[in-house]
Amino acid sequence: MSNHATYDDANLILRLYELRREERMRAARKWFAEKCGPETLEEFRALCPPGTDENAFFRQVSTYYEMAASFVERGVLDAELYFQSGGELFLVYCRLEPFLAEYRTAFKNPGLYRNLEAVAKRYEAYINRNDPEAGTAFRARMRTMLGKK
């Protein structure tokens, strides 16, 4: 990771933060954090049927973080500076991870959410540098938020 974050990096992070504050995005993020936790594609389809607000919320949040991750993956945004500004991307990945392989197969798109996955794994390694249990603890908190063990 680079130690040479620029003013452009900081400005992009601020812009990404502004987008997260948009009213509909706030509602989508709230739903995602509190209610989205399918373990299988079947559970996902039951939770987020096409044409529902839940489906729209899922797509809005997941594609937003896929976009942000693409900036990091392509070197447009300094990874460490992005990691220091929050871990919501990792929350999104933790919620997708259990059924991501099935999702990719169903949509016949093995690259679906590839940037999100790559950056989430880098983020987990980043937080584990200070404490090797940090990623595991984060995942446990995300499950607890959904009332799961």
SSE class: mainly alpha
Radius of gyration: 15 Å
The largest β sheet comes out as: none
Please, how many domains? 1
Low-confidence segments, given as residue ranges, are none
* Gross morphology: globular
Helix content: 55-70%
Beta-strand fraction estimate:
under 5%
- Total number of helical segments? 9
Terminus-to-terminus distance: 34 Å
Oligomer: single chain
Total beta strands: 0
Mean pLDDT: 95
Order of helices and strands: HHHHHHHHH
Structure description:
By secondary structure, the protein is mainly α. It is built from nine helices and no strands. The chain has one domain. The mean pLDDT is 95. The longest helix is centred in the middle third of the chain and has 21 residues, at 53-73. Helices cover 70% and strands 0% of the residues.
Short description:
This protein has 149 residues and is mostly helical.
Write the layout of secondary structure elements.
Blueprint lengths: L6 H14 L2 H13 L5 H7 L5 H21 L5 H6 L3 H9 L3 H7 L7 H15 L5 H12 L4
Name a few traits of the molecule.
single chain; 149 residues; mainly alpha; 9 helices
